[in-house]
């Protein structure tokens, strides 16, 4: 790592203390989706608030109101917003992260206690729930701020903060708060940096400039007044399960082609220049197969496989409610069944329009079955896709920082999943948003167990020590690259 700035050397020299702070954070089991853990989420929010204040930040802890969860009325965790530095001559960067985590129990199959940071000295990995998603990256920013303070180095930008405690459970109320603060706390923001994703693989850093959106559907078919015996009523009645299978066979092919008219036609066309971004990404089909745990990738072309993951829409069937699913043999005809599927959206697909296309198509196909059963189609929720320009100075600054710390140009990627608040920041603030990940593609952010599956090892959540330390330096150096990158953009 050829970064000789004082803040970078301080981070290198104080690794043990920085890992100890991460240990403190991981040991707070801030699981947002479980009512019994809610006090710990509030405790984590207070811990983070106190750490930021100690480092000189001005922080407001915003109460988010009550929530009904598991039959209880609970207070939502606060959103921490605030600032560090108010120099009108400097650019202002908004940092987003979340301090809540996914559930984890040792009995789930964890090799280590999930809420105790374990430093595996053989692999130099830091195991623990939240180590990579998203406490490690948040503490990376704390590392940067403390390093500047301890070395007497002036921060080259003003910082704004937005740290929430409900990302893993729907970010309740956050969108409304961001929209409100777009004219308040965030009014002077010049760009946004989010560290809540991962490298595509394990060897090359990346910057992310796009996310797919989501439309999630429920398809219910009902007929008989109660479950029936197949020996008595088989071939006598229209069976809801048979109708559902017939409909779902018309949604997508085994090769992943979406069959709903109007979906593929709306996708923004691919340019030769854009295709090159996927061709040069430092990953192989073998890497993807290793992550999958099997040689089941549809395309043998790396770029096509990556575009299927990031750039094109996909339709996945998730499950069926009301169907017999326990071990054994049961000859029941379900009276009603509900199938669930989703479509990952890309530009220029909008959730509302996709919802109308899906509903019309399923109703038209259902009519062709001549069934006397009843069909109901619902879009349960939707989120828009997001994509931005990698030519913006925000990306130029992060690219320069990545090259200096890691010795290679980052891959430019689009995520297959969704982070809805990204689009909210982009639209409410009308500023460039960039995802600058700290962790690697094998961090197992939402993993539950430690088991072998199809020859692939599924690990507990971890963060490589190298990624925590060099990743912190990358975040700091990005801030130092912002003034020059922004000035160069203005001069063009």
UniProtKB/TrEMBL annotation:
Residues 210-368 form the Peptidase M20 dimerisation domain. It comes from the Eukaryota. Keywords: Hydrolase, Metal-binding, Protease. One of its GO terms (biological process) is proteolysis. SUPFAM superfamilies: Zn-dependent exopeptidases (SSF53187). Gene3D superfamilies: 3.30.70.360, Zn peptidases. One of its GO terms (molecular function) is metal ion binding. Pfam families: M20_dimer, Peptidase_M20. Belongs to the peptidase M20A family. PANTHER family: BETA-ALA-HIS DIPEPTIDASE, CARNOSINE DIPEPTIDASE 2, ISOFORM A. This is Peptidase M20 dimerisation domain-containing protein. It comes from Rhodotorula graminis (strain WP1).
């Amino acid at each position: 790592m050829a970064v000789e700035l004082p803040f970078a050397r301080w981070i290198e020299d104080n690794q043990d203390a920085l890992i100890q702070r991460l240990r403190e954070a991981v040991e707070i089991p801030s699981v947002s989706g479980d009512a019994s853990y809610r006090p710990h989420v509030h405790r984590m929010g207070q811990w983070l608030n106190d750490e930021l204040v100690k480092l000189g930040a001005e922080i407001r802890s915003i109460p988010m109101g009550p929530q009904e969860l598991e039959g209880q009325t609970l207070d939502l965790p606060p959103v921490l917003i605030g600032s560090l530095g108010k120099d009108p001559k400097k650019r202002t960067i908004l940092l987003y992260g979340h301090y809540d985590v996914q559930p984890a129990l040792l009995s789930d199959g964890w090799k280590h206690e999930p809420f105790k940071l374990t430093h595996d000295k053989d692999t130099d990995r830091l195991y623990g729930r939240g180590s990579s998603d998203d406490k490690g990256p948040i503490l990376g920013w704390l590392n940067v701020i403390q390093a500047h303070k301890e070395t007497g180095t002036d921060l080259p930008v003003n910082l704004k903060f937005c740290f929430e405690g409900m990302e893993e459970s729907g970010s309740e109320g956050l969108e409304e708060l961001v929209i409100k603060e777009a004219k308040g706390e965030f009014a002077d923001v010049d760009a946004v940096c989010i560290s809540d994703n991962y490298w595509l693989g394990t060897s090359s850093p990346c910057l992310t400039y796009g996310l797919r959106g989501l439309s999630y559907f429920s398809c219910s078919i009902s007929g008989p007044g109660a479950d029936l015996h197949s020996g008595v009523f088989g071939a006598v009645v229209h069976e809801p399960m048979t109708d559902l299978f017939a409909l779902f066979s018309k949604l997508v092919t085994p090769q992943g082609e979406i069959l709903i008219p109007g979906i593929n036609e709306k996708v923004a066309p691919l340019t030769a220049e854009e295709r090159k971004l996927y061709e040069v990404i430092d990953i192989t089909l073998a890497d993807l197969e290793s992550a999958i745990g099997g040689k089941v990738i549809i395309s043998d072309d790396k770029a096509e496989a990556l575009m299927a993951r990031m750039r094109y829409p996909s339709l996945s069937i998730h499950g069926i409610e009301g169907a017999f699913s326990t071990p054994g043999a049961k000859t029941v005809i379900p009276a009603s069944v509900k199938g669930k599927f989703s479509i990952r959206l890309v530009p220029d697909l909008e959730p509302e329009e996709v919802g109308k296309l899906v509903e019309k198509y399923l109703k038209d196909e259902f009519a062709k079955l001549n069934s006397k059963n009843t069909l109901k189609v619902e879009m349960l929720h939707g989120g828009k896709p997001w994509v931005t320009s990698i030519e913006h100075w925000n990306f130029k600054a992060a690219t320069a920082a990545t090259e200096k710390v890691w010795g290679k140009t980052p891959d430019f990627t689009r995520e297959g999943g969704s982070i809805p608040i990204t689009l909210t920041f982009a639209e409410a603030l009308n500023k460039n948003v960039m995802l600058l990940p700290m962790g690697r593609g094998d961090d197992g952010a939402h993993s539950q167990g430690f088991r072998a599956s199809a020859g692939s090892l599924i690990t507990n959540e971890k963060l490589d020590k190298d990624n925590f330390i060099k990743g912190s330096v990358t975040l700091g150096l990005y801030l130092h690259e912002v003034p020059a990158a922004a000035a160069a953009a203005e001069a063009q």
